[in-house]
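$ run holo --ligand "adenosine-5'-triphosphate" --emit tokens
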Amino acid sequence: MQLHMESIYKSFRDKEVLKGITVKMENGVYGLLGPNGAGKTTMIRILADILQPSKGQVFINGQDKNTCGDDYRAKIGYLPQDMNFYPDFSGWDYLQYVAALKGIPTDESKMRIIDLTNSVGLTGDLRRRCIHYSGGMKRRLGIAQALLNDPQILILDEPTAGLDPQERIKFRNIISAFSKDRIVLLSTHIVSDVDSIAKEIMMMEYGFIKKPQTGTEYIRLIENCVWTFQIPVSELIVYQHNAVISNVVPKGNTMEVRVIDEQKPNNDAVQVPPNLEDAYLYIFNYLSNKHKGEGKVSPRQSDLSADYN
Ligand SMILES: Nc1ncnc2c1ncn2[C@@H]1O[C@H](COP(=O)(O)OP(=O)(O)OP(=O)(O)O)[C@@H](O)[C@H]1O
Ligand SMILES: [Mg+2]
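-- output --
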């Protein structure tokens, strides 16, 4: 399976939200990371065939999706960021309804609903009205409906919002098992959601996207650049201006800070192993400065400008 977006632009009135997205995805889990308003949902809705791009094309196995008719949607499972439920529907009614919309025969859909609700842990709640489900249960119901047609491409917009840690692990296991021989794209702004599950990660900001890379490749970008040290609270502002602070923990009268800086930030700083969250903060700090026309660009950051132009 191959999904390819070629030079996708999208504007809403005079606001350009996607500015030339080109991405090729093959089987496996892809994480789409980006802050609020980056354009993740817009990109996902184009892939889910809910929105048309202003310019550009989407290809599935080399064929333009607009020439595939209903075949394209039949291959897609989509979990929207915001889901609405009819007030009278039970979980069971809702899944039957979605199955009917997807054209799945009733006897087939019954078995499928039983299997899927078992995998997402909703079996005991199927007869309850779904508007009374908790946030996490609604998400799990959403994941089940996205999987109903056994899609080749599964697109999940913020699938883990509202899930507790145990549910997140369950979710990861479902997705990992499912992603064999298929494409899964999941958007989030929570780095840990994609860290362990995604084969490759795309970072998105200001309508641009960085080509998919592994978490290890992102982390390599800030190798030897992550430090911790303690400072009085009054000095925090100095580091806020000169480096990217990835964490601050109060320690008695001082603060222990975790900083991403290409130079050793002070004599007491101790180098620590970088993680994906550090890389995310580093990249978005660079992009945000670039967008505002502020801040210096370091040699490592200039490597990024080849991908975000
Ligand atoms: N239908 C629309 N009409 C006008 N503007 C829109 C529409 N949909 C999205 N936008 C704008 O496009 C930009 C990107 O929105 P989008 O929902 O794609 O971001 P996102 O990355 O999914 O954010 P979040 O993490 O908050 O879900 C925002 O500025 C948003 O206001
Ligand atoms: Mg969104």
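-- notes --
Residues 2-218 form a domain with the Rossmann fold fold (CATH 3.40.50.300).
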